[in-house]
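#random but structural
TW: two for the price of one
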Amino acid sequence: MQCITLAILLLTPSIASCHIHIFATCFSTLPRNIQIRGARADDDIPIAAVMARELMNPLGISHQNNLLIAQDVVSGERVGWAQIRSIGYAGVGLDPSRFEDDGEGTDDGSSSLKRRDTQSALSIERDIDEQMWEEFESDGVDFPTGLASLPWTNNYKAAFKAADDRLKRRDRMVNEELNSRPMFWELSSVYVIPKYRKQGIGSELVKQVLRRHVITNKRGRDIYALTLAKTVPWYEQFGFKIEEKVPSSMTIEMAVGNVITKLIREKLVCIRTSL
């Protein structure tokens, strides 16, 4: 009964700061001195520093993402972490007629529908602004000049109303476009301090960060990650498989990672799971 009650509490937004710890208490196999909690603002810089020291990507670490921390309750030390962060919107909307089949399909035989083409919110806004500008150039309402531009004239009022309507329409178009597109996500910054490894902490962090992604009803269930080829078997327990094509928003990260991994004679690969 206690765990059922706590699972219900887990869905209550007002206690979001403590729900991960509650879930860990009921269902995890963590050592008794380790608890998992949601990240705070003061976690960002120390974690980024460790990631940089370990030659891992320190960028994008943020408590505003789905970032979880494993902490030793005795020493107060952060012993591990994992996060899921957005890597952009799909390059096409949810309307099937707007998808383009790249002809390559997926392992289950379904079309891949160019799912790897991503756009940022800013890029989508720019596309809409370009469309609005084209409409503006062909708009029949000209901005008045001379005496007709005085605020009390009918010409000025008509031009002002047209501009205001255009701005409101632009905002509606942006919101509708962003809400219509699936989002893609990256599991990143998965790390456990060496002396705390082999205790199931990393596995529990990944399980809980994936579970939290589903529970918080994030739009888009495709989760990507970059990892060393030798660690792929470990990620397979969470449903990840090697993805040959890297999402466009991860290509720079992949290129930089390849430079670093070659220095240590390792291979970097992209993996993906769908929740």
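TW: number two ↓
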Amino acid sequence: MKYKTHIFLFPCILLWLLDVILTLAGQSSKYWAGNFSGAKELNPLFLWFLSNGPDIFLVVTIAYILLLVTLIFLVPLRIAIITAYIASIAHLIGAAGWLLQMNLRMAGIILTILLVISVKIVLDKEWQKFKKACFYFMVLAVSGVTPKNCTIVN
């Protein structure tokens, strides 16, 4: 049985993408007219990039996600999973914040609740797969059996 950390990247990348799309969609018409000083973003670092223009913001956020993915593949499995979970939750909070402040009224609240529930379900399923893979691997390792098809890889 093989278990790869890239499975944990799926929700992380989707939430990052949703956060970036909602961040750009949440900017005012003045921002899109060229007044970048009116950028809105809670993260001070990304606010600085956003206030220098959407093109710079996009380049930096793409570099950020590529760096995050690379880091997750390079670090040990436990650290990779923790990192992917933290990034997923951070981008969930970012996306939910945008949904709640976009004047969608009750629809924004409902979408936020559905997003949180969906992310919880996906992360729980990934965590259960990981625990199951670890359990089988440990049982086989303790019993001294190490078949070729039973490894947890990074």
